[in-house]
Model the fold of this input.
Amino acid sequence: MTTSDVRNPKTTARRPAPGRGQGGRLPSWQVQLIVITAGIALVSVVRLISGANDVTSVGQVAAALELAVPIGLAALGGLWSERSGVVNIGLEGMMILGTWFGAWAGYQWGPWTGVVMGIVGGALGGLLHAVVTITFGVDHIVSGVAINILALGMTQYLSKIAFNGVKGGTPVQSPNIDPLQRWTVPGLSDWMTSLNHHHWFLVSDLAGLVGGLVTNISVLTVVSVALVPVSFWVLWRTAFGLRLRSCGEAPVAAETLGVNVYRYKYIAVVISGALAGLAGVFLSEVAANFYRENSTGGRGYIGLAAMIFGNWRPGGLALGAGLFGFTDSLRLRQDDNVHAMLLLLAFLLLFLAVRQAMRRRYTQAVVALVVAAGSALWYALSDSVPPDFINAAPYVTTLLVLGVSSQRLRMPRADGIPYRRGEGS
Amino acid sequence: MKKPAALPRIDRERVILAVAAPVLAIVVAMVLSSVILLASGKEPFEAFRLMFQYAGNADIQVLILNRATTYYLAAVAVAIGFRMNLFNIGVDGQYRVAAMIAAVVGGAVSLPGPLHIALILVVAVLVGGFWAGIAGALKVTRGVSEVVSTIMLNSIATYLISYLIQPSVLGHQPKGSNNLTTTPLKSSAYFPGINVTVNGALYPIWGFIFVAIGIGVAFHYTLNRTRFGFDLRAAGASESAAIASGVDTKRMILYSMLISGGLAGLIGMPQLLGESHQYSLDFPAGLGFMGIAIALLGRNNPVGIAFASLLWAFLDRSAPNLDFNGYAKEIATIVQGLIVLSVVVAYEVVRRYGLRRQQQRVGEELAHTAKAERAKVAAQGGAA
Done:
């Protein structure tokens, strides 16, 4: 539903079907499905041209998924918090708390205790953020930055006490944690892998995608992926979610309707911390099987970027996290994959150029075209791309997406604005 | 009327309140970190005593001054943005890209002393300003939040540098070492320092400390004595009021982002020109966040920031002594984090308290005048 539909419900009513009528649009999930299918087809074309068959292999997809999950969880954390109107730049710190507490409990009392303690650790970070921003009304970004500093110092300090001198531990690393269960869907996984090895157009790529999702997948990955639709359902389909979001859009209006804004904000920020904590646990128990200093590596910030990339929506942020995870996983695989991305970039820019030209934005179209030609030329003339470039790609992409579509992004209206009860005007 | 008598009292109270917040914050941070030390079975007072004792050494004091110089520049760079309500989270990336490029340019040329230094400084300012300007331009033209874009630019800076510093691109690898650096600067680009001799060993105080002081003075003058500074503060305090009074806020956003980035470009200069004479990957990361913390502690005020950076440098530099004595030096980072949190909370609490006091006093005064008025009316009525 577009904004104009909301403002003027008659237009929707008069329209016989939400089809491609004059200026009408498909429902957003259909558009998304088409875009995703087209994207996979495009990747498939690139794979056939470049011969980099590993781009959509089962292993590549599985690696991408595992890298995307912590980013996606952090992004979900950001979503919960920002939907209630609290900017949470402290996700990074809460994630650090999750990695530490998860590993600390995990190596002593088993991985599941670790999961719970990691979530608790992150939630405590969230609670601190809530107290400082909601009760004391301090600027949200300031509080977040302070929490990041504090969490880093705290875990470094605690590591020296808790892990130093323990068997298998060092001042910067915890002893190993027993691994969590991993599942492979029997039959389906083998079938997909063999389909993938045929390297057919589209079919093999889809098989690789499905195969990556059903092969050697951690329990925690399943839980995390499930949290995306769960978050959507809670935030957009329940009364609780509606009230929570109303605190992020118009807290004073919510207050007049009897919503306890403070309580909802507290709940949202604590859940946000818990999700970031789970992201941290994932890093210590699934991505590795120990805590290591700086293992988060700024993923909390990337999660925030993925959320904004996804327009403060669960589906969008999952897509953003997938993009970051995929580009991140490229450097772990073969160089050919990275090289093939140049061709993909050229195609995407070509598409953008055509789109802009159709909208008569000729300058932008020409710029896109020139860059597209440049990357195509680069692809043709070189054999490899410096890995640093591909590492920077998701960040550059986010910047570009924000630059191109920031007008269409809409954050919660009262996001980041301190709110005090009874002082609304 | 009591008004003339009341005025100085308000001023004194305001001063007390302004000082109370940071003092309160530091005390709270100390108490909390003592609790943490106690909880981990350590004696807190001994830890603080060890830090002070270590900082009593002249060589450590030199290190503290040098570190404070770097922090001061970082905090001023952040403070410019803060005054305008801009969060330049990207100071970290701006400083590293600027230091790297300036070191490359400086290493490639040879010029007479002052010119060489000037060239390096100009390059650093321009590159830092450019890197911040990307975020500024995106904000002004496309409405992209500078918080997000500067975080992205920080990460991009990391990879850009790690690419550029490879020996096959612009970097330099000293024989028999795995550390990657830029080409070392010629001695004409060495910034003079003040040498302090401790037990026969030389410890130079970076001469850049005077540049930093000069920047602090310029910062104060620009903000408080020029039209530009007034516009900047006005736009930061209330955008709508600034627009109404004819300030072009978009231009102000771009300018303050460029200035903030340009200053960020200078952060790496004391170390580059005064000590290492080459850029390498071991230049400290995370300075931007330290700058945010210090700017907050110093209330975006040049003098306050100076004290705050000295405190920060003291915590940083005196902490290693803890490691030699059975304590963990990370407690210093915890203290820093706690100070930031308690400082912002303390400012808010003190602000609310001050506001309440003011309301009370105004109420009292009004009640007083009303009473006097009533008495007068009653007296007149009695007379009639």
Notes: The CA atoms of residues 122 and 330 of chain B lie 37 Å apart. Strands of chain B lie at 194-198, 201-205.
